[in-house]
Amino acid sequence: MTKFPGYDGKRVIVSGCFSGMGEATARLLLALGAEVHGIDYKDCALSLASFHNVDLRDRVSIDAAVGAIGGRVDALFNCAGLPQTCAPLDVMKVNFIGTRHLTEQVITLMPAGSAIASISSTGGLGWSRRIPVHKEFLQVAGFDDAVTWSADHADIVREGYAFSKEAVIVWTMQTSFHLIKRGIRINCTAPGPTQTPMMKDFERATPMAVLDMATQPINRRSTPEEQAAPLVFLNSPAASYVNGVLLPVDGGFMSGMATGQVEMAALSPTKAA
Ligand SMILES: NC(=O)c1ccc[n+]([C@@H]2O[C@H](COP(=O)([O-])OP(=O)(O)OC[C@H]3O[C@@H](n4cnc5c(N)ncnc54)[C@H](O)[C@@H]3O)[C@@H](O)[C@H]2O)c1
Asked: What is the pLDDT averaged over residues 134-163?
């Protein structure tokens, strides 16, 4: 590695570049000299190398965008997402099924040394308790069959957010084992509460006391920029030995949970009501 973090002239794709973490990631990559290609279903105001109007719920629009970008792709940032206030199948399509499909198409354009970073969530922290069902789901290849599986397992998928974010984590870990043999790394992050346009949906769906619990011990929400920088690091040559990792970017919340130090009173029915 000659220059840190090494994005000069690199061709990268950012999904979800319209707002929040994806927009902050695209902005940072532009400042670092990358050739940034953006994907979103809302038009992006940044001066990108190219922008593609893609609805991640629509496999055909994903394929068209990847075909139009073409050439070599050095890094993919999967930042697009929908909150639990949307229809569960839409949440599954955007947060996991369409994201996986996009990744599989982009991988065909990636040389050895490339990398993929996806945004999961602390909302997916239950992933380790249901690996068998996620492994069953991951065996369902292809966009359409994964949608059918999700519709047929509404009792497991439920509101879609937690399951989709868990799926991103287990998929990242499982895929990393094989992809690295081609010299391609894949990792993901688990942000804590972050002040983006999506936050208003979380505030609508989640009691404030529970949201505040997730900012223990740092006692404030993250900025989108504080989420962008770790993603940019993960996909950089500086992280060349980092693979298959779930990186919590949560101010210490998950560590506090693991060591029993997070105050859980907000989860009691009286406080959370
Ligand atoms: N904000 C938080 O507190 C928080 C916490 C943990 C994880 N996350 C995750 O971070 C990621 C980024 O979210 P954010 O907080 O920046 O919110 P955001 O709403 O600002 O960004 C989401 C982006 O995804 C795009 N998008 C949504 N549906 C799409 C579709 N069908 N096709 C293409 N693009 C679509 C939106 O247009 C937007 O640009 C999401 O995956 C979200 O689940 C957010």
From this structure: 98
